[in-house]
């Protein structure tokens, strides 16, 4: 896995994916003032959606069935409260998203025990170490219905409120059309880079509220 220093050295050029210009890193920089401002303090909540399945596996590569698509790696940190001075150890980040054709696996909810193992992929969870960091690999999600491209997260940690949220893709024209992504602000819209090996990499941090 690419070390963070190496990743930061490699970013700085743009690439094109599915009609979206992917450039730079995630953060609070405005995208031509097209998105509402967000203070990048507490991460805003978002819709759970109809396809959350509890009981997913602790895995780094969500694409357990090697589905076709552009490789993706997302990393960042989870912090307690506002700012970046209090990383959370042992935060659980459950992640799920559509495949490159816009289909979820499974296209349902409930628990993993309700499905065959072959029906479960592009979902799982990671746990943060002492510095609050996380990373996972997968493939870039495709378009689903009228939604902007997105990734779902459910983040839980001891003594903190559970955060259900989504991240979006910088340059996606649907962001201004999707009622959910219109309110995402700058800090949940990720800018991706090609790492030189064909993998799109991006960073998004989460700040969750202490109970």
UniProtKB/TrEMBL annotation:
Chain ranges of the Intradiol ring-cleavage dioxygenases domain: 59-197
Signal peptide (residue range): none
Organism, as annotated: Splendidivirga corallicola
Name of this protein: Intradiol ring-cleavage dioxygenases domain-containing protein
Record's keyword annotation contains Oxidoreductase: yes
Pfam families per the UniProt record, alphabetical: Dioxygenase_C
Entry similarity comment: Belongs to the intradiol ring-cleavage dioxygenase family.
UniProt-listed InterPro entries: Intradiol_dOase_C, Intradiol_dOase_core, Intradiol_RC_Dioxygenase
Stored PANTHER family: DIOXYGENASE (PTHR33711:SF11), DIOXYGENASE, PUTATIVE (AFU_ORTHOLOGUE AFUA_2G02910)-RELATED (PTHR33711)
Keyword RNA-binding: no
Keywords, sorted A to Z: Dioxygenase, Oxidoreductase
């Amino acid at each position: 896995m690419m070390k963070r220093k190496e990743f930061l050295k490699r970013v700085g050029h743009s690439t094109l994916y599915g009609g979206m210009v992917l450039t730079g890193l995630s953060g609070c920089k405005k995208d031509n003032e097209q998105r509402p401002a967000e203070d990048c303090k507490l991460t805003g909540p978002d819709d759970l959606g109809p396809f959350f399945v509890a009981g997913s596996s602790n895995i780094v590569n969500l694409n357990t069935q090697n589905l076709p698509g552009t490789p993706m790696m997302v990393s960042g940190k989870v912090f307690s409260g506002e700012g970046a001075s209090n990383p959370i150890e042992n935060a659980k980040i459950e992640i799920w998203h559509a495949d490159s054709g816009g289909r979820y696996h499974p296209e349902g909810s409930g628990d993993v025990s309700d499905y065959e193992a072959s029906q479960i992929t592009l979902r799982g969870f990671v746990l943060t170490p002492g510095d609050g960091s996380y990373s996972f690999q997968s493939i870039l999600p495709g378009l689903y219905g009228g939604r902007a491209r997105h990734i779902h997260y459910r983040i839980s940690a001891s003594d903190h409120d559970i955060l259900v949220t989504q991240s979006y893709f910088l340059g996606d024209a649907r962001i201004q059309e999707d009622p959910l992504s219109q309110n995402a602000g700058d800090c949940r819209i990720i800018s991706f880079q090609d790492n030189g090996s064909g993998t799109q990499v991006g960073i998004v941090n989460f700040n969750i509220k202490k109970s």
